[in-house]
Design brief:
Length: 308
């Protein structure tokens, strides 16, 4: 669909919500909801998205919306989807409905992982979207297993004893691909056309689908609001956040930078990494770059792409 046509479609997520200026997740939500053609039922885990978009008595959602606890949005939507299938068999519903579960990385990578894994393994026809801002931003910018190595958070504070988070982020997209579900993809809010195309594929999948979408948090990443999209794009251009999809077990690269940027260039855009540019942390920067390069090469091999 061409951009002018997409812009004319009715918005299922409105303005006027309470998200921070420069927040990435409203962009992510709008693009994904624009890709849905059928009536939509949204389940949302507790987090930034829910808190800022459903302040009683107001809502930014122009569709059916269910707020769940932090850890169980996938289980909730599994029950809703199962009830829908039962009602269709009974002839009480005769229309196609799309089911979407939204969760942040805290509610997806960590607290809700068992719920997500169960829903995917059981084969519920729903699309799970992780709006990945790389930390528990709603509760005070604590680290999650999606937080990059070296990031300064309130639970991995950069100082004399610790240069930020000591662990690398979990590769949740690969973990979901290992569930052998019909469709898995990694995307970024900065590449709207790629995200839109992947959302369309996810909705059309014959079974469960999972989208892991990088969504800048200008507060937790310590960036200027106007730099939101540029910072997300930088993560793609330096291969920290590669774009790819796994369709029926086949890995496919969605974007290959002509000349990948150094990871340090991306980190310089964000206050959460500023301590890494002290002389005593130069070795850690080199180690992170080496790990990103190795991960990129492994991805190219999985996708059958020449690394040159």
């Amino acid at each position: 669909m061409a951009l002018p046509d997409l812009a004319k479609k009715p918005q299922r997520f409105t303005g006027g919500h309470r998200a921070c200026a420069g927040c990435g997740f409203p962009i992510t939500i709008k693009i994904i909801l624009q890709a849905a053609e059928n009536p939509v039922v949204v389940g949302c885990a507790t987090g930034c998205m829910e808190v800022t978009s459903t302040i009683y008595p107001y809502t930014a959602w122009r569709c059916s919306f269910i707020h769940t606890a932090f850890e169980n949005v996938a289980a909730t939507m599994s029950g809703v989807e199962a009830a829908y299938r039962s009602l269709r068999r009974q002839g009480k519903i005769n229309q196609d409905i799309t089911f979407i579960a939204f969760g942040g990385d805290g509610g997806t990578y960590d607290i809700g992982l068992q719920s997500l894994s169960g829903a995917m393994e059981r084969g519920h026809k729903l699309v799970y979207v992780c709006y990945n801002n790389q930390g528990y931003m709603n509760t005070g910018i604590q680290r999650s297993s999606a937080t990059p190595r070296g990031a300064n958070t309130t639970t991995t504070p950069a100082g004399t004893q610790l240069p930020g988070k000591p662990q690398y982020p979990k590769n949740l997209t690969a973990i979901m691909a290992a569930h052998d579900i019909p469709y898995v993809a990694q995307a970024s809010m900065s590449h709207w056309n790629d995200l839109y195309r992947k959302a369309k594929k996810a909705f059309a999948a014959e079974g469960p689908a999972f989208l892991n979408v990088l969504s800048t948090c200008r507060l937790g990443w310590a960036t200027a609001p106007e730099d939101t999209v540029d910072v997300a794009e930088g993560a793609v251009q330096c291969n920290v956040w590669p774009l790819f999809e796994v369709e029926k077990g086949n890995w496919k690269l969605s974007f290959k930078p002509k000349k990948p940027l150094p990871v340090a260039d991306w980190m310089k855009q964000q206050g959460r990494f500023k301590h890494l540019f002290r002389s005593d942390n130069s070795q850690l920067l080199e180690t992170i770059q080496q790990q990103v390069d190795e991960d990129w090469q492994r991805l190219l091999e999985l996708c059958g792409v020449n690394g040159e």
